Amino acid sequence: MGLIPYVIEQTSRGERTYDIYSRLLKDRIIILGRPIDEHLANTVVASLLFLEKEDPEKDIDLYINSPGGIVTQGLAIYDAMQIIKPDVSTICIGLAASMGAVLLAGGAKGKRFALPNSEILIHQPVGGIHGQATDIGIHAENILKTRHRLNEIIAFHTGQEVDKVARDTERDKFMTPSEAHEYGLIDEIITNRRGALKGGGDSDEPQVPSGGDEPVTD
Fold first, then answer.
1. Fewer CB within a 10 Å sphere, N or C end of the chain?
2. Confidence band of 214 (pLDDT split at 50, 70, 90)
3. CA gap 193, 93 in Å, rounded
């Protein structure tokens, strides 16, 4: 995970120390800043559920800087985003690739953002499988089902046809924020601090979906 900064906050009861992610969580900000695995998915889902309990009416900001990861874990985050009552605003800062791009697109309509120098990548899922031929066939079929499901999710949130998404994800498709906006993956490009989101979704107007040894990743 690397070095995690800590911040000191003055309260009526004296000083209180938080790690930076816990402090941001107080402002309803979640950082998805590494490859998506079981631990990260559980942490993000727990954070979403906690913030819904705290205030079911106030937006949650999810900042994404991730190369993607395990599809099933990413879909756990995606499903939680869809079922909780607060709107989840998604912001790409750096990279939203693979499953990260699916989560970016899965934010609340009108509240999906990217910074000017960020990068978005969509492609088909990949996975490593070995074992008996029958098992390989079973898992290959499952990967194809997963691919179709992800294409359906992207199509739903972008307004693109599923067949077009399938063609576009046949190989890596990199997009600039402008291209992602045109595709329908995001709604706005944040170009300056005035357009940046505040914690909790209170923002000024921006200017501008076993048997193998390896899980399927996106």
1. N
2. low
3. 13
CATH tag, 6-201: 3.90.226.10
Phi and psi (nearest 5°) for 140?
A: -60, -40
Helix or strand (DSSP H, E) at 11: strand 6-11
Q: Quickly state the pLDDT bin for 199 (edges 50, 70, 90).
A: very low
Per-residue pLDDT tens for 3-61? 788 888 887 787 888 889 999 999 999 999 999 999 999 999 999 999 999 999 999 99
- What φ, ψ does residue 189 adopt, rounded to 5°? -110, 125
Active site residues: 98, 123
Spatial CA neighbour of 126 closest among 17, 35, 5, 217: 217
pLDDT tens readout for residues 149-164: 999 999 999 999 999 9
* Domain residue limits, the chain: 6-201
Query: pLDDT at position 1, please?
Result: 56
Alpha helices in the chain (DSSP H): 20-26, 38-54, 71-83, 99-105, 133-158, 162-168, 177-183
Task: Specify the pTM.
Answer: 0.85
CA 218/CA 208 separation, integer angstroms: 29
Closest alpha carbon to 84 in 113, 44, 38, 112: 44
Say how many C-beta atoms besides its own lie within 10 A of residue 198's C-beta: 13
Longest dimension (CA), the chain: 66
Give which of 218, 162, 139, 154 is closest to 186, Cα–Cα.
154
Strands 119-122 and 188-189: unpaired
